[in-house]
Amino acid sequence: MPLVRQLIPALLAGVTALTLAGAAHAEGQIRIAQQFGIGYLILDVVQDQKLIEKQGKKEGIDIKVEWTSLSGATGMNEALLAGALDVVSAGAPPALVLWDRTRGRQNVKAIASLGSMPNYLLSNNPKVRTVKDLSDKDRIAVPAAAVGYQSRTLQIETAKLYGKDDYKRFDSITVSLSHPDATAALISGGSEINAHFSSPPFQYQALENKNVHKVISSYDILGGPATFNFLYGTQKFHDENPKTYRAFYNALVEAAEFIRNNKARAADTFIRVQKSKLSPEFVRKIVEDPEINFTVSPERSFVYAEKLYEIGVLKNRATSWKDYFFEEAYAQPGS
Q: Judging by beta carbons within 10 Å of its beta carbon (0-12, 13-18, 19+), is residue 191 exposed, middle or buried?
């Protein structure tokens, strides 16, 4: 089914009273939302090859899959809790926050990682070479200001530099903007946006401009390769749709294996599904980057859980990564 691009109000408007009331979801249906960028390549492969439908047949059911594209964790989380979506995708921190906030109620948990990849804080301001160089004159574009992956990662670094009581120091200079729009603004240099906490492929595209430079990588902040995005959903969907859920998870595993063994074809899939105007050579270079690993296994996600608890973003302390993942993920290694 083609990727449907629509805004959150349209999603919420389409939710029936029955869904909002928490009615059981029919086995054999799944509504998935993803964001923009190569960080969602596993989902692009799943969609392109109809792997959920394929795995569903192994479970003995025909699965109807609905795909939606949204930007930012806020809209994702609102749609999930409203019942407009079954599976959403966002950075590890927003997923952890929702796990924390819904414990004992909707019990949102992670389904799988979508891979480990660095996110770069970029700037076209020659005076900004480190995080400490940022001032109230700068404006940092992120998909979801103060609450998204990039903002939470910056907050962890800020707490390290200035103390946990001052972790929100740079929230006032962050601006919510999609990665494509932020990249265009950074390259053009004609707007108030002079920094962008970016992600692949946008960060590499921006760095081709001589006026743009890297300030810091998320890997620097987290101590090494770490999960970028999670897929997550509610306990209700997980428990009431075991065959659909199992087919979905197995489709993710199959897609990750396909990418590992067919990187050039996977790059072509990204271009086709996301209708990217980037050159195949450019995308293949990113997919083959040794810093990037498309895997369903979480990596260093527990660093986020610990650090966000330490600064008070999370109220509940996880004892391991398994606390905030559904049990199907335990078959894979994780951290």
A: middle
